[in-house]
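[recover] target loaded
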C-alpha cells in the first residue's frame, strides 16, 4: 500500500471513531415497523372522516352540487380525463417542466452552496444578497420574468429553477458549515488535497443537510410549477384547474387538485427513498 493510501485509511478510521453507527436493539426493527404502520393508520383518519362528511353532505344536498360536487362525480371526471388521454399528456408536460427546472436549479444551488461553504470570501460577497433575494416569493418574480422571457417554456424553467435553487444552496451551505472542525483537522494532518477533503470528509458529513435541501427544493419546484401553470400556461396539471374554472365545472377543478396533491406526494416519497440511499452511502463512506 502506498503512503498516501495509508494516510487515507488512517484518516477514515479516525472519522469513523468520531461518528459511530447506532445499531437497533433486538426486536427494534419489528417495533419500528409497527410504529410506522400505526402512524400511517392515524394519518388516514382525518382524510377518511373528511371524505365521509363530503359524501354525507352531497347525498343530503346540504351543499349545492354547483358548489361542491359529489365524490363520485369527481372520480368519474378523473376517469374520463384519464381515458381521453388529456390527463396523461398534461401530467407528462408538468413532470417534464419540473424535472428540467429542478435539474438546473438544483445543480446551480449545489455548486453555489459548496462554493460558499468552502470559501469565506465567496460567502461574504454572495450570501447577504442571496438571502435577501430568497425572501422574494415566486409570484413577485413572475411579472418581471414575463416581461423578459414571455410566457413560453423558458419562463417556467427559470421560475422552477429559481425556486429550487434557494433551498438547495442554503441547506448545502449549512451542511458544510456544520461539519465538525476535528474532521477537517484530521484530514489536514494526513495531507488530504482539497478534492480528497471535499469527497471523503466534507460531502459525506454534509449529506443529511444536502438531502433535506434537495427534497425541499423539489417541493418548491413543484409548487412553483403549479403556480406558473395557473397564471401563464395552456398545458399542464395547473392549467387543468384553470380550464375547469373557465368551464364552471368544479368536478374538473377538484379532480385536477387531487392529481396535483397525489403527484406532489409521490415526488416527495420518491425523494425520501433516495435520501435513505444517500444516508446509507454516507455510512458506507465513513
Amino acid at each position: 500500500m502506498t503512503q498516501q493510501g495509508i494516510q487515507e485509511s488512517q484518516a477514515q478510521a479516525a472519522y469513523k471513531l468520531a461518528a459511530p453507527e447506532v445499531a437497533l436493539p433486538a426486536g427494534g426493527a419489528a417495533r419500528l415497523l409497527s410504529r410506522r404502520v400505526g402512524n400511517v393508520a392515524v394519518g388516514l383518519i382525518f382524510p377518511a372522516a373528511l371524505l365521509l362528511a363530503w359524501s354525507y353532505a352531497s347525498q343530503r344536498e346540504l351543499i349545492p352540487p354547483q358548489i361542491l360536487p359529489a365524490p363520485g362525480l369527481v372520480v368519474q371526471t378523473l376517469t374520463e380525463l384519464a381515458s381521453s388521454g388529456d390527463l396523461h399528456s398534461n401530467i407528462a408536460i408538468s413532470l417534464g417542466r419540473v424535472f428540467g427546472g429542478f435539474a438546473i436549479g438544483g445543480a446551480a444551488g449545489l455548486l453555489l452552496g459548496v462554493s460558499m461553504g468552502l470559501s469565506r470570501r465567496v460567502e461574504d460577497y454572495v450570501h447577504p444578497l442571496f438571502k435577501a433575494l430568497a425572501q422574494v416569493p415566486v409570484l413577485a418574480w413572475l411579472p418581471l420574468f414575463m416581461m423578459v422571457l414571455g410566457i413560453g417554456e423558458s419562463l417556467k424553467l427559470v421560475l422552477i429553477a429559481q425556486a429550487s435553487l434557494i433551498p438547495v444552496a442554503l441547506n448545502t451551505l449549512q451542511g458544510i458549515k456544520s461539519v465538525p472542525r476535528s474532521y477537517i483537522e484530521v484530514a489536514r494532518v494526513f495531507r488530504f488535497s482539497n478534492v480528497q477533503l471535499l469527497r471523503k470528509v466534507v460531502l459525506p458529513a454534509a449529506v443529511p443537510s444536502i438531502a433535506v435541501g434537495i427534497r425541499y427544493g423539489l417541493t418548491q419546484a413543484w409548487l412553483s410549477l403549479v403556480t406558473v401553470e395557473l397564471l401563464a400556461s395552456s398545458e399542464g396539471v395547473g392549467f387543468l384547474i384553470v380550464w375547469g374554472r373557465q368551464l364552471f365545472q368544479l368536478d374538473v377543478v377538484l379532480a385536477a387538485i387531487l392529481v396535483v396533491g397525489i403527484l406532489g406526494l409521490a415526488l416527495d416519497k420518491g425523494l425520501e427513498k433516495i435520501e435513505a440511499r444517500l444516508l446509507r452511502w454516507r455510512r458506507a463512506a465513513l
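[recover] notes: The first helix runs from residue 3 to 18.
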